[in-house]
Amino acid sequence: MRILIAHEALAGAGGVESYLASVIPALLSQGHAVGYLHFDPRQQPGPTRLEFSDVPSFGVTDDGLERSIAAVAAWGPDVCFSHNMGALDVDEALVARWPTIKMMHGYFGTCISGHKAHAFPSIVPCTREFGAPCLTLFFPRHCGQLRPFKMATQFKWNWRQRRLFDRYAGVVVASVHMEAEYLRHGVPRARLLTAPLFPTSAPASTPRVAPSQPTVLFAGRMTELKGPRVLVSAIARASALLGRPVHLVLAGEGPERERLRSLSMSLGVHATFPGWVTGDERIALMRLATIIAVPSLWPEPFGLVGLEAAVHGVPSVAFDVGGISEWLRDGINGRLVTERGSAPALGTAIAELLGDPATLASMERGALTVSAEMSLDVHLAHLERAFRAAISQAVRA
């Protein structure tokens, strides 16, 4: 097959770039021809560059949409596989000419802000169907940035994205949770594929050495939705229950960082802040952790960070929200906490796991098993079936 990948950026630091950096070489190794259409400038910096010697690239900002689409047409894709694309003109141009599979990495077309959560009076997942009534709740429930123009712009964009649902040859999501979300928003089951994600790093060749001090890792953007403040309080409780300090590593950046530092000091939590880490440095942090915490309060579409740690034998503790239960199996590779947002419940789960060496060792083995099951090969097989079905449908039409 000749597969055109479409994404906003040619380089970046996000999860989509890491995903494509694994998927593109895998498609090439299967004998497919791959092209890459990106919106942002070619010279945009980023640690993960999606440039491959045998993959032609087409730049919309550099060359213009019309010229880029003409170049794509000359290359001749059988199917397009679109990812994050803020400029919906691009997706609209693709679906007008070729069967296009869309991968929804977030709540695109189903939520004004994309958070799928209300932040007032407390953070709770939103279960509403996207539409005009959402505008009446946006400010009272603090569903996003409290700026009227921003709200209107985001609503218009999401409404336009939703109108594309009927034009995509298929929609791919990473979890059963997201499958339900897009079924509820009108994507027919026959055109909706759930393809769970996979770890984007390989297991290390050497065994992991357990840290001398119990260590809990948080790796992600430091925002209220990600729950790091709840985690700091949970670590204080876990330390008290265990009768010894638990080291907390908060890796990432974001608006909560300095407040988290202050909260850690006030609660007597031993916390370190290595900043935003990628590549080998990120893997090293995971291998030095006893467990990884995913304290998200919003409904994570998947929560890949926990599966990334699992490939190194690191179990997880997380709130049971969104798609997290797709990879975190309670009692197998970690603990799912049902009391969403409860620092005491999260702290108790962490303490119970850290205080039981036999269970911890079992869940470390479980982490390796689950990460092996959710492989790139399995994900790729799902995608290839979707591509072939889209091409076949286009031929019949």
Structure description:
It is a single chain. This protein has 14 helices and 17 strands. It has 397 residues and is an alpha/beta fold. 41% of the residues lie in helices and 16% in strands. The strands form 4 sheets. It has a 7-stranded parallel beta sheet with strand order 5-3-1-6-7-10-11, with helices on both faces.
Write a brief structural summary.
With 397 residues, the protein is α/β, with parallel strands linked by helices. The protein is built from 14 helices and 17 strands.
The secondary-structure class comes to alpha/beta
Helical stretch tally:
14
Largest sheet: 7 strands, parallel
**Strand line-up in the sheet with most strands:** 5-3-1-6-7-10-11
Distance between the termini: 19 Å
Gyration radius, rounded = 22 Å
Q: DSSP strand (E) fraction?
A: 15-25%
Low-pLDDT segments, ≥5 res:
none
Q: What's the SSE blueprint?
A:
Elements: E1 2-7, E2 11-12, H1 15-29, E3 33-38, E4 48-49, E5 57-59, H2 60-63, H3 65-75, E6 79-82, H4 88-95, E7 100-103, E8 117-118, E9 124-125, H5 133-138, H6 148-163, E10 170-173, H7 176-184, E11 192-194, E12 215-219, H8 228-242, E13 247-251, H9 257-267, E14 271-272, H10 279-287, E15 291-294, H11 304-310, E16 316-319, E17 334-337, H12 343-354, H13 357-373, H14 376-396
Parallel strand pairs: 1-3, 1-6, 3-5, 6-7, 7-10, 10-11, 12-13, 12-15, 13-14, 15-16, 16-17
Antiparallel strand pairs: 2-4, 8-9
Helix pairs in contact: 8-9, 8-12, 11-13
